[in-house]
């Protein structure tokens, strides 16, 4: 946490916050020039009450927010829920619990948890020994003293949050989920009321996320404040707003993944694409085939059990996020697949760790599943069953299909056209997905784009394509014209691992340069492609991708944030940008700066977007 800026105060001048030196009465400097009149106004209090709305992503339909504030305490915050079904109500209570816990963590981070009044009631008595009657010392063995709560510090005695979800009984995200919401906040007498109306749990969860951005900690008055007059109507532009994390090239703990989900939730990203395995390692411990992890994990501690996956899925769901697990196949499948002959299952994968690697795969180590071994498909079927049970129900499932190397297969098979092997494999994998999902495949099975996706064997009605190539590559137009639904992940805008140099040699990496948050934000591919309104129906949304050759837990947050949040606003709001401008509007810079600090307050190590001076002096640097 940044320390309080006790030497500065801020004034709202022409809808922007202006920094001024602050000298407190009694300060040694006050004898020379006198003290600064009035109370110190922290930057966050100024920027929340001065100028444009500080919500990220920006609401799409309507947003009217006043500048008056109310001071409240968590002890007075209560929720009332009307829901279409009991599971929705239960999930909403869990989501509200997360909302309240994160506010409690904000107080704790500022050392103000005991001042809020939740720990001890306003009228509770403290004995001379420091112990409340009937109370024992806390778990740390120390006696904690709390000052009685000063009622004059707060503007309300009651803060009610009333949530109404009367349409959808679903607690699982689908391609048709209505994520819209209406949020209003009013303050009457000493009562604060926030009303949420949504058609689904997911819309109501987004409303809570927006409301949390109307709340902040004032480090001068040392209280939580909220903008007490608001009316917001909001609906996302795209249903699929994703983030992909590769956990094979480096292992990431469940806690690190959870931290990523927190950032996603507050950015309103709704699909976590978990690229759980690759040719480097196989960290998932299958209950049917534990040999995959036994032979493929980096160590016995760098694994994901079924309990781990279930924990991540539930943690994501209460935050409005769907987990989409991916076992990449047939390529990118090496280490972990080499035990077949020892168990009389034959060669499950070919070209494993084969050299020279550049002949047989895109990067070392190599490995590509055997398309003519029925045991390979049986294992995939069992893996699909497990993942659908853990993460499902899913109407979108990722089969992989990336970067198949035909030279690898050509060493072993004599087909006249090796592309038919890829088609056969993908159709067989799709059939096994159907069987795994009790005879009915998810509505869409996704594959990565490649030179093979344009080969006429995949049905546009059952397959979606995740387009990862360059935004100007011809495949974009070919796939649209072929009628496929697309998830866009263009390497020249939304690949977050690019720009850190080659890890195999000196010089630039394969996808340099680095894409800063403005590049991520300004990429509007549907506009560049000049798609018609009919073609726009084929764009499901987009996804930022983080491949982890050069990323581990020590750098995860800074690679993802706040750039993933820039993608989030592109996919939620899709603001129209000046085509020839190289930068984003000043107002967007200011909102991003505030949101980046919000992520830091939530415990994410998001990278800064400019010098702190620029954050303190709005509009002077951009």
Task: Describe the overall structure.
This protein is of the alpha/beta class. The chain has 3 domains: 4-28 and 36-49, no CATH class; 62-112 and 152-234, Chitobiase/beta-hexosaminidase domain 2-like (Chitobiase, domain 2, 2-Layer Sandwich); 240-576, TIM Barrel. It contains 19 helices and 21 strands. It has an 8-stranded parallel β-barrel, surrounded by 5 helices. Mean pLDDT is 91; it is low at 119-148.
Structural class category: alpha/beta
The biggest sheet amounts to: 8 strands, parallel, barrel
The total tally of domains equals: 3
The Rg value, from CA coordinates, equals 27 Å
Helix count, DSSP H or I runs of 4 or more residues: 19
Total strands: the figure is 21
CATH C-level of the largest domain: Alpha Beta
CATH topology of the largest domain: TIM Barrel
Helix content: 25-40%
Biggest β-sheet: strands ordered side by side in the sheet: 12-13-14-17-18-19-20-21
List keywords for this structure.
19 helices, alpha/beta, 3 domains, Chitobiase, domain 2, beta-N-acetylhexosaminidase, EC 3.2.1.52, glycosidase, Beta_hexosaminidase_sua/sub, eight-stranded parallel beta barrel
